[in-house]
Amino acid sequence: MNQKDSVLKHFFRVNERFADLINGTIYRGKQIVNFSELVEVDTELIEKTKDKNTANRRRNLIKQCRKDGTIYVLYGTEFQSTVDQMMPVRIMEYDALTYLKMHEMYKKVHPVVTVCLYTGEKAWDKPVSLHEMMEIPEEMKGIVHDYRINVIDAKEQELLMYRNESVKEFFELVHDVHQLNRKELETKLEERTLTSPEAVECAAIVTDCRELNQLIVSDKEGNRMCQNFKNIIKEIKDEGKIQGHTEGMIEVIRRMNNLGVSIELIASSVAMSVSEVKDVLANQ
């Protein structure tokens, strides 16, 4: 999982935010999903082939929604920072594998609804259905089944559809970064009060916006980081345990530096001196 997917997963795995995402995107603001009804489930899927070989597939995030203790729908999210021609086929595969896994576990299946949350700057100009991917002969129309996906462009969201303040702030910041010029963005950031550090951090990372990065790395005293940012650092460190302690620490330092984090804050985060961090960066 790349860094952008990771921060989005940490942000939206909070049930209140996930429920608001589904209610705002799928149900146009109607409060259909209650956050207390959501249960996160394993995202790993196994693709079975005829020769019994298996290939791992992992969804970004998926939650069961339960009514009266019974599963009645599964909501999945796929995070996308670039436009993908093959997205309908990819999501069709994820959904099919989810149904197969459900049947193996429960001997029955429940509806699966997937949201593709797109956070890129470019407009999504690729297919959002299977039919749009192909040229269908006239005599086959009505025979070839379609598969339509829910592509949600983060920068184009109507904020009135959302109730969670962190989710609204995230969408508004993504919109501003992609739609305003640099001077307009700087002016707007100076004039507004940001209420959700997690939303700022998430928007900063998925948009690669240095202006937002500077807002998340430290407070006035220069000693605070957002919880989600700490979670990402932990993930990088955990990856490093597999590679080896030194390599993992170097990767933490490199990624934090790429995000515009100050040398002092990097040093504090990895329990090293400023000079040691500078030496690591100098040798990259």
Spell out the key features of this protein.
7 strands, alpha/beta, 46% helix, 11 helices, two-stranded antiparallel sheet, 284 residues, 5-stranded mixed beta sheet
Walk me through what this model shows:
This protein is of the alpha/beta class and 284 residues long. The protein folds into two domains: 3-163, no CATH class; 227-282. 46% of the residues lie in helices and 15% in strands. It contains eleven helices and seven strands. The strands form two sheets. The chain has a five-stranded mixed sheet with strand order 1-4-5-6-7, sandwiched between helices. A hairpin with a 5-residue loop joins β2 and β3. The two termini are 23 Å apart.
Reading side by side through the largest sheet, how are the strands ordered? 1-4-5-6-7
Shape: globular
Number of strands: 7
Main β sheet profile: 5 strands, mixed
Low-confidence stretches: 46-55, 218-227
Portion in helices = 40-55%
Mean pLDDT across residues? 83
Secondary structure elements and pairings:
Blueprint: H1 3-12, H2 15-25, E1 38-40, E2 44-48, E3 54-58, E4 61-67, E5 70-80, H3 87-106, E6 112-118, E7 150-153, H4 165-179, H5 182-191, H6 197-207, H7 210-216, H8 227-243, H9 245-258, H10 263-270, H11 274-282
Parallel strand pairs: 5-6, 6-7
Antiparallel strand pairs: 1-4, 2-3, 4-5
